[in-house]
Design a protein that fits this description.
The structure is a single chain. By secondary structure, this protein is an alpha/beta fold. It has seven helices and twelve strands. The protein has helices at 4-12, 15-20, 39-49, 71-82, 98-112, 183-187, 191-203; strands spanning 32-35, 60-66, 86-91, 115-116, 120-121, 128-131, 137-140, 144-145, 148-149, 155-159, 162-170, 173-178. It has an eight-stranded mixed β-sheet. It has a two-stranded antiparallel ribbon with strand order 4-9. Strands 5-8 form a two-stranded antiparallel sheet. β10 (155-159) and β11 form a beta hairpin. α4 runs parallel beside α5.
């Protein structure tokens, strides 16, 4: 029996879904940042814009501080990924209400196959997330994280041994889930955040991720 994820992907491959996002015209020639209207997303988007330059692959889509994803927007993301886009999905759920987080977790779980867990406040002191991809770096967390549960091979970063970031290949592209916000660190021009973010965008030029 096909899994829920397999059914979703088969629907995306259908002519009706293709009309939603045409893979032939999926890329505008420039990387895209999809920011939401709330301040957290806007600030994070400003941080990610600091990374973009003429070498940034056009197949890059960044969802900054996302906490209002609809099922339709998730389907768009999956369609674009199958067409070759790499989507950085930065979670802003750690700054949503419990009810909002639960609703969004259900959408993300169904569409991306990631079990999004309740947000966790990391407190003061030294709240660093340990990345093992695309480079090994300790990057400061932004007050709170949204952990996930996924296959060990998908995990790209942990906080205190708990997975918080993951990478999944989908079609000719894929999705990078960031359960610890990176954009605010980029906006604050933190060197480790910039080293990680720049290395991540460079990897999207390759097709063997």
């Amino acid at each position: 029996m096909p899994t829920r994820r397999e059914l979703l992907l088969s629907l995306i491959a259908s002519p009706a879904a293709a009309a939603l996002v045409n893979p032939v015209s999926a890329f505008s020639g420039e990387p895209e940042i999809w920011a939401e209207t709330h301040y957290l997303s806007q600030e994070s988007a400003r941080g990610f814009r600091l990374l973009l330059n003429e070498r940034t692959p056009p197949n890059t889509i960044i969802l900054s501080g996302a906490r209002e994803l609809s099922a339709q927007r998730c389907r768009q993301v999956l369609c674009r990924a199958r067409a070759g886009a790499w989507v950085v999905c930065e979670s802003g759920l750690c700054f949503s209400s419990r009810e909002e987080s639960l609703r969004q977790a259900h959408v993300w779980n169904a569409m991306f196959g990631l079990r999004v867990l309740p947000p966790v406040r990391v407190g003061d002191g030294h709240p660093y997330v340990a990345y093992n991809w695309p480079v090994r770096r300790l990057v400061r967390s932004f007050h709170a994280i949204t952990p996930i549960r996924c296959g060990s091979r998908d995990v790209i970063a942990e906080f205190g041994g708990v997975p918080v970031c993951a990478k999944q290949s989908i079609g000719r592209g894929g999705v990078v889930y960031l359960g610890s916000m990176l954009g605010p660190g980029l906006y604050a021009e933190e060197p480790e955040a910039h080293a990680l973010g720049s290395a991540m965008l460079r990897t999207f030029e390759r097709s063997d991720l």
